[in-house]
Design brief:
Largest sheet: 8 strands, parallel
Number of domains: 1
Radius of gyration: 17 Å
Oligomer: single chain
Distance between the termini: 29 Å
Family: Belongs to the arginase family. Agmatinase subfamily.
Structural class: alpha/beta
Number of helices: 8
Protein name: Agmatinase
CATH class: Alpha Beta
Shape: globular
GO molecular function: agmatinase activity; metal ion binding
Strand content: 15-25%
Cofactor: Mn(2+)
Order of helices and strands: EHEHEHEHEEHHEHEH
Pfam family, one: Arginase
CATH superfamily: Ureohydrolase domain
CATH architecture: 3-Layer(aba) Sandwich
Strand order of the largest sheet: 2-1-3-8-7-4-5-6
């Protein structure tokens, strides 16, 4: 991946020393089990970001002025386990520098390392997973670091809340807290699901978004699209409430599988990332001081 600034922002807003945000691309697609191409996701996301207007109308802000450092990509791909370890160490390094750390995948297995780093750094962490799939398998295809296992460890070590789920294997029920799972077929008729799920969150929240959470009518370019997903404005409404009420300590976005003939998915991913920065700096606490220093 060629080195550039995030969204083509001026160099003065992209220096690590001054930037409040770190963006780590992880172009990894080693365990995908259907459509390949998530390793091309970060490049497509960055290209779309370069062609995006940088004034956020809703918040009347320009989030990039807080500074966004585009970190070198994590390119370790010799094994899923080594990739997860590389993501973990890279993420932990930037968290220790008191940055608001964000990642763009790549497939969802990258989140195993990401979540581990955040869980070691922030007390009593909630992981909010917005996703079509449960991703709760203890092991899949010979490894615990498969995209189908993305939040298994988080289900045991953090306060995991799952939103938008509409596809899973029966074995995953053994590892799921259904009281903190908001299935897509239920939330469509539940006016209180946003408020109820936010009430279950602790103060510190890490958000992991698999783009297949969105309905394929608005985001078809993902590895395993599922019908019946979330739409744009309801998702933004939900995220905005979370940023207002909780301390979002970081987030990742995964599973963009770009289609050269369909660019709207790339732009949705770019706008989603930028909107989350807008909400963080407009409504958030902006307090991301590391609480645990365990290595």
């Amino acid at each position: 991946m060629s080195k550039k600034t995030y969204a083509g922002i001026p160099e003065k807003y992209s220096r690590l020393d001054d930037a409040k945000v770190v963006l780590i691309p992880v172009p990894y697609d080693g365990t995908s089990t259907w459509q390949k191409g998530a390793d091309k996701g970060p490049e497509a996301f960055l290209h779309a970001s370069e062609n995006m207007e940088l004034f956020d109308i809703e918040t009347r802000t320009e989030p990039y002025r807080k500074g966004v450092y585009l970190a070198p990509s994590v390119t370790e791909s010799s094994s899923p386990e080594k990739m997860v370890e590389a993501v973990y160490r890279t993420t932990k390094n930037y968290i220790k520098q008191d940055k608001f750390v964000t990642l763009f995948g790549g497939e969802h297995s990258i989140s195993i390392g990401t979540i581990k780093a955040f869980n070691e750094s922030f007390d009593n962490l909630t992981v909010l997973q917005i996703d079509a799939h449960a991703d709760l398998r203890p092991e899949y295809d010979g490894t615990k670091c498969n995209h189908a296992c993305a939040v298994f460890e988080a289900s045991k070590t953090t306060n995991l809340i799952q939103v938008g789920i509409r596809s899973m294997d029966i074995e995953e029920l053994d590892h799921m807290d259904e009281n903190q799972t908001y299935f897509a077929h239920d939330i469509i008729s539940d006016d209180d699901w946003m408020e109820d799920s936010i009430h279950q969150m602790t103060d510190n929240v890490f958000i992991t978004i698999d783009l297949d959470a969105f309905d394929p009518s608005i985001l078809p370019a993902t590895g395993t699209p599922e019908p019946g997903g979330l739409l744009w404005y309801e998702t933004l409404d939900y995220l905005k409430q979370i940023f207002k009420k909780k301390n979002v300590v970081g987030f990742d976005i995964v599973e963009l599988c770009p289609n050269p003939n369909e660019k709207s998915s790339d732009f949705l991913a770019a706008k989603l990332y930028y909107k989350m920065l807008a909400y963080k700096f407009k409504y958030g606490t902006n307090q991301n001081t590391v609480e645990n220093e365990n290595d």
